[in-house]
From TrEMBL, chain A:
<keyword id="KW-1003">Cell membrane</keyword>
<dbReference type="GO" id="GO:0055085">
    <property type="term" value="P:transmembrane transport"/>
</dbReference>
<comment type="similarity">
    <text>Belongs to the ABC transporter superfamily.</text>
</comment>
<dbReference type="GO" id="GO:0016887">
    <property type="term" value="F:ATP hydrolysis activity"/>
</dbReference>
<dbReference type="InterPro" id="IPR027417">
    <property type="entry name" value="P-loop_NTPase"/>
</dbReference>
<feature type="domain" description="ABC transporter">
    <location>
        <begin position="4"/>
        <end position="254"/>
    </location>
</feature>
<dbReference type="InterPro" id="IPR050388">
    <property type="entry name" value="ABC_Ni/Peptide_Import"/>
</dbReference>
TrEMBL record, chain B:
<keyword id="KW-0813">Transport</keyword>
<dbReference type="Pfam" id="PF00528">
    <property type="entry name" value="BPD_transp_1"/>
</dbReference>
<keyword id="KW-0812">Transmembrane</keyword>
<keyword id="KW-1003">Cell membrane</keyword>
<dbReference type="GO" id="GO:0005886">
    <property type="term" value="C:plasma membrane"/>
</dbReference>
<feature type="transmembrane region" description="Helical">
    <location>
        <begin position="145"/>
        <end position="165"/>
    </location>
</feature>
<comment type="similarity">
    <text>Belongs to the binding-protein-dependent transport system permease family.</text>
</comment>
UniProtKB/TrEMBL annotation, chain C:
<dbReference type="InterPro" id="IPR035906">
    <property type="entry name" value="MetI-like_sf"/>
</dbReference>
<keyword id="KW-1003">Cell membrane</keyword>
<dbReference type="GO" id="GO:0005886">
    <property type="term" value="C:plasma membrane"/>
</dbReference>
<dbReference type="GO" id="GO:0015031">
    <property type="term" value="P:protein transport"/>
</dbReference>
<keyword id="KW-0813">Transport</keyword>
<dbReference type="Pfam" id="PF00528">
    <property type="entry name" value="BPD_transp_1"/>
</dbReference>
<dbReference type="InterPro" id="IPR025966">
    <property type="entry name" value="OppC_N"/>
</dbReference>
Length: 333, 336, 311
């Protein structure tokens, strides 16, 4: 049984009659020791879906799902108190901007010890020792002196390590990392990802890695989900997705990687922008930007279906040669 | 920290000099011959006039008069009242505790009602409780303080008879002041009922005086809290699985109160201005009433000394607030 | 595979088609501000109330049933019309010397509005000029002006107003001047801060290169960009001016009797706390409502003009 099971998760905002679906019937699962990468542009709903898992979506957002279970327990119907016991202890999350993730009024040790106090108890001495341990684990040099530092005295990379230490303090079984390296310098990014992967391996955690960076996810993830405008477009094992993408969007994303533009004059891009709240297309959400779109795509919305073992949401999934299947000849551009 | 303190003092000292200058010349501009005021109704003949002039230094050029005055100020001598002939500084020190007691109560009222109201409004943003508390706040600082005081008296003292109308203590009690704070002195005196009398006399003036600061603090707390609640570290705190109460009271409030402290400090000036009106209405024997009476009686040394002392108190309070701000906000502490 | 719909005769869609229709020309700033302002119910109510008060102020002479200073010796301290012992001619009752309260309140509106507006205009003009000069020329002028403003701000406003009135003597005009002086530092500071932040902007430098003189730079180029916070402060200044004038009137140092200034009315009414509640309640209520309306409007303006709030 999967550690985290998400079936048809939908998160809506706005009025009841004209809601904005930030997340639209998305399903995925994460197992122990597995790294799932969720990839998408901003506005794809990837962050919102993980916030829903953590229970951090506030009124007026509405969260519905066929199933949202952690270790077999239903997160949606769980009493709030019980859910808070799981949050931060069994499921932990780290966010994008480490510089603003720490409370400026409290020291580093105070914030880490707080997580320990709330979930594990123990006396101050024990907690302090454990905090020192954690700081060592995340690779902070000279942790003793850093303990009494205030957040504004730390650099970006250091702050993110502290945030990670805080998150793994109670040995979570699932760690959700929402764009953990986006706000950091390139040189630090690799270090942080390596740290996350090492921690994941050592403790056999499930890791949900959310990012817009395909390159990142290619190295780190076992499986990948591609999201767009709140919908799941493609999901499958990382290797196969990179070797043979089935969704035109995935294909375009891969082509947009600088490495794949070798030999071309210009970098390839995906024209247009992700639809916002007020300009959702009636048909397939990608249709205005998709190079293969025909009139069917503009009129109707595809459902997720299985294509040779891969989940794809497209009327005309791509074959091994990268061409759409099922289209009448002469229809494509 | 020490460097911070010296820098602030470096700002304040010239300002204080400026205030002495301003006050000195302001008072000099008041029409009317001070010597005649001093002499009173009996009037004075030419010889006595010259005597008085020399005695008070009015025959010196104005610059010299100013420097004499300045020297006096630094020695703690603010001159003598024209009316009572007693040193101004003594009268100030005798009456000041009454105003301090009232102002202190007013601030406590303002903070202990204002901050919770602001927090309530922030966590229930957009709902009825938010609108209600903000309406109360808005009404609070749109009200003329003297009218509010009169209404309170009308309702609670005259109609309901729950509270007394004026003064600090019922005339039944008499004891020597020890600290000047009626609440403390009445307890020390051991007389039965004195303390509750002191308390009941304090209630209405405190409410009247503290309402405007309360309204401002409530509003400020709300907006500060809203800003803090939108911060990333609050979301992180919730992701840690902390109870909502803890998130708000420990994480959010600590940060939200930082700017509110500055506001509280600024309210001291408002309180002292309001004290003038409140003390007049409640016949509260503090420096507000003292200054008004001095103005009505053209008692220049008192007016001058009183205003100077008030300016001094306000500036000291601002300094304390600045230092407190440095203590409470770690970012400032380390930068400076 | 997936559901199929019958293909229509329309041609195949292309890459990168425009998803959103282009909108018309964006609304002018005034229109936009008004649109935001209108949605704020409190602010809008404030505006309506102010409109009503302005109406009273302008038409006082014709609307008020009686002469505000005429005394009716047969009708001392008559209660309002819905109470026992009332005189039906005097809807809100009469005061201690038989003057109709309603008429006095209406004329009081005229007084308060003129006080508020006059004080703010005077103070703002002086404040803008001073602040402009200080912020633009910087150097010792700035230091001197700002130091003076600091000194003025170190005294509580009411106390300074009292001191100035003590010099000039009690009376309405002197009270207004005193309040205008007391409000001055706020406008100076605001203007100077705005000017200093605008000075580094490129349009100013461009203008300078094009040869604009100082006066033009200050008042034609820079000033319009600083107006938003000044307008908000001005509106709120009207409400504090009204409150301060009433306070001075109450202390006997502002408008002198028999002028029907609301604060002055309250000073005459003090002794009737136990006996004639209407003489106390109504004038204060008028002050409250007027000040509230201006505060609401000021807040609404601040929200409407604040670029951060604009979605």
């Amino acid at each position: 049984m999967a550690l985290l099971e998400v079936k048809n998760l939908t998160v809506e905002f706005g009025s009841e009659d004209k809601p904005f679906r930030a997340v639209d019937s998305v399903s995925y699962s994460v197992d122990r020791g597995e790294v799932l990468g969720i990839v998408g542009e901003s506005g794809s709903g990837k962050s919102v879906s993980s916030l829903a898992v953590m229970g951090l979506i506030d009124f007026p957002g509405r969260v519905t799902a066929d199933a949202l279970t952690f270790d077999g327990q239903d997160l949606l119907t769980m009493p709030a108190k019980r859910r808070r016991q799981i949050t931060g202890k069994d499921i932990a999350m780290i966010f994008q901007d480490p510089m603003s993730a720490l409370n400026p009024c409290f020291t580093v040790e105070a914030q880490i010890m707080e997580a320990l106090k709330v979930h594990e108890g123990g006396n101050k001495k024990q907690r302090r020792e454990r905090t020192l341990d954690l700081l060592n684990q995340v690779g902070i040099p000279d942790p003793k002196s850093r303990m009494t530092a205030y957040p504004h005295q730390l650099s970006g990379g250091m702050s993110q390590r502290i945030v990670i230490a805080m998150a793994i303090a109670c040995n979570p079984r699932l760690l959700i990392a929402d764009e953990p390296t986006t706000a950091l310098d390139v040189t630090i990014q690799a270090q942080i990802i390596d740290l996350l992967l090492k921690l994941q391996e050592d403790s056999d955690m499930g890791l949900l890695l959310i990012t817009h960076d395909l390159a990142l996810v290619s190295e780190a993830a076992n499986r990948i989900q591609v999201m767009y405008a709140g919908q799941l477009f493609e999901s499958g094992p990382a290797d196969s997705i990179f070797a043979a993408p089935r969704h035109p969007y995935t294909q375009a994303l891969l082509e947009a990687l600088p490495e794949r533009s070798e030999g071309h004059d210009r970098l390839r891009t995906i024209p247009g922008v992700v639809p916002g709240q007020y300009d959702r297309p009636a048909g397939c959400l990608l249709a205005p930007r998709c190079r293969y779109a025909n009139e069917n795509c503009v009129k109707a919305r595809p459902e997720v279906s299985d294509f040779n073992g891969r989940d794809v949401r497209c009327f005309y999934p791509l074959n091994d040669q990268g061409q759409p299947t099922g289209m009448a000849t002469g229809e494509t551009v | 920290m020490l460097g911070f303190l010296f820098r602030r003092l470096g700002d304040i000292i010239p300002t204080f000099f400026g205030v002495t200058l301003l006050v000195f010349f302001l008072i000099r501009l008041i029409p009317g011959d001070p010597i005649l005021m001093l002499a009173g109704e009996r009037g004075v003949d030419a010889e006595r006039y010259a005597e008085l002039q020399a005695q008070y230094g009015f025959d010196q050029p104005i610059i010299v008069q100013y420097f004499d005055y300045l020297v006096g100020v630094f020695q703690g001598d603010l001159g003598k009242s024209f009316v009572t002939k007693k040193p101004v500084i003594d009268e100030f020190l005798t009456l000041f505790p009454a105003t301090v007691e009232l102002a202190l109560m007013g601030i406590l009222f303002a903070v202990f009602i204002g901050v919770p109201l602001g927090v309530l409004a922030a966590i229930n943003r957009g709902k009825w409780i938010d609108h209600l508390t903000m309406s109360i706040s808005l009404t609070g600082y749109s009200m003329p303080i003297f009218w509010w005081a009169l209404l309170l008296i009308m309702f609670f003292s005259t109609t309901l008879g729950w509270t007394p109308v004026s003064g600090r203590l019922s005339v039944m009690y008499f004891f020597e002041p020890v600290t000047g704070f009626m609440l403390i002195d009445s307890l020390l005196s051991g007389e039965k009922g004195a303390f509750s009398s002191a308390v009941s006399h304090l209630i209405l003036p405190t409410i009247a005086l503290g309402t405007i600061p309360m309204a401002v603090i409530a509003r400020m707390t709300r907006s500060s809290m809203l800003e803090v609640l939108g911060e990333e570290y609050i979301r992180v705190a919730r992701a840690k699985g902390l109870a909502p109460f803890r998130v708000i009271m420990v994480h959010a409030l600590r940060n939200a109160l930082i700017p509110v402290i500055t506001v509280i400090g600024l309210q001291v000036g408002v309180l002292l201005g309001g004290a003038i009106l409140t003390e007049t209405i409640f016949s509260w024997p503090g420096i507000g009433k003292w200054i008004i009476e001095a103005m009505n009686r053209r008692d220049y040394p008192t007016i001058q000394g009183g205003i100077l002392m008030i300016a001094f108190v306000v500036m000291t309070m601002n300094l304390i607030v600045d230092l407190l701000y440095g203590v409470v906000n770690p970012r400032i502490r380390h930068k400076r | 595979m997936t559901e199929n719909t019958t293909p229509s005769a329309a041609p195949a869609s292309n890459v990168a088609q425009e998803v959103v229709e282009p909108v018309g020309a964006p609304p002018s700033p005034l229109r936009e501000t008004w649109a935001y302002f209108k949605t704020n119910r409190g602010a809008f109510t404030g505006l309506i109330v102010i409109g009503f008060i302005l109406f009273l102020a302008l038409t006082a002479h014709w609307i008020a049933p009686f002469d505000p200073i005429a005394q009716d010796r047969t009708a001392f301290l008559k209660p309002p019309i819905w109470m026992e012992g009332a005189d039906p001619r005097y809807i809100l009752g009469t005061d201690a010397v038989g003057r109709d309260i309603l008429s006095r309140l209406i004329h009081g509106a005229q007084l308060s509005v003129s006080i508020g507006v006059a004080v703010v205009i005077l103070s703002m003009i002086a404040g803008i000029v001073l602040g402009m000069v200080a912020g633009y020329f910087r150097g010792w002028i700035e230091v001197a002006v700002m130091r003076l403003m600091d000194i003025m701000l170190s005294l509580p406003s009411l106390i300074m107003a009292l001191a100035i009135v003590a010099i000039l003597g009690p009376g309405l005009e002197n009270a207004m001047l005193a309040i205008a002086i007391v409000q001055l530092p706020h406008y100076v500071r605001l203007t100077r801060a705005s000017v200093v932040s605008e000075l580094n902007k490129e349009y100013v430098i461009a203008s300078q290169i094009a040869g604009a003189g100082h006066v033009r730079q200050m008042f034609v180029n820079i000033l319009p960009n600083c107006m938003a916070p000044l307008i908000v402060q001005g509106t709120l200044g009207i409400s504090s001016a009204i409150l301060d004038a009433a306070a001075l009137g109450f202390l006997g140092l502002g408008a002198q009797p028999p002028l029907p200034e609301w604060g002055t009315m309250l000073s005459e009414a003090r002794e009737f706390v136990g006996s004639a509640w209407w003489v106390i309640t109504f004038p204060g209520l008028c002050i409250l409502v007027t000040v509230l309306a201006f505060n609401l409007m000021g807040d609404g303006l601040r929200d409407a003009l604040d670029p951060k709030m604009k979605r």
